[in-house]
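Researcher: Re-running this chain for the archive, since the previous output was lost when a drive failed. Same request as before.
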Amino acid sequence: MSLSRRQVTAAAVSAVPLALAATGTARAGGRRSRTLFIAGDSTAAQKYADAAPETGWGMALPFFLRKDLQVANHAVNGRSSKSFVDEGRLDVVLDAIRPGDFLLVQFAHNDEKEADPTRYTEPWTTYQDHLRLYAEGARARGARPVLATPVERRRFDAAGDARPSHGEYPAAMRALAREEGVALLDVQALSLALWQRLGAEGTKAYFNWTATEQDNTHFNPPGAIAVARLVARELLRTRVLAHRDVRRLDEEIPESWIEWPAPATA
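Model: Regenerated structure tokens:
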């Protein structure tokens, strides 16, 4: 589907929680506060009341960041590194990003869909090519790119071991990060280890399992909070952020903090 620039801009703005969009240019101590932009897919995206209890990890990330570091969540359901670019969504982000900001990029779930030419990328060629567009675009504007390997699905074998589901994509992203000198958050490895610790039954409490749906890809509030905590810890470990930028890394986050606003109307 081809979208006009106006449609993409409107969709991107509606995808960012109003409270965050309004404070992105707030000043702390006389200088513009920094913003962490998220480009990604449905696992990170803002969800609305009609999708509850499904929760993107980007909704929970602000709980772990200091208030003067804003989050602008541009992740959108169903997008790949390619379709996000082709629809003009990366352009929208790059138009808004400023020196000192961050662009956190997580794709692969939809890049893997070989039957869909609008989304499919090959790990070692077109996937890496598209990821370079994000990194180069951020750097050209004085912002810092950050790559995050895709969070793992809930997938266990007969022996009860958590199994990876993303093929060569995480390895391709790791290699590109090394080649380009881009900070890497290894969310795939960390989430796989977390699901292994929780086990096949325990992980059901972290994914969008309801009376009518058994979703092994998307999260509920506990799952989104757990993944956001992994992301925040990786941002600190890789020195993308300093200790002064993060908070509550070892604290319990109440599920009630998650909010699903009403869907945006055209």
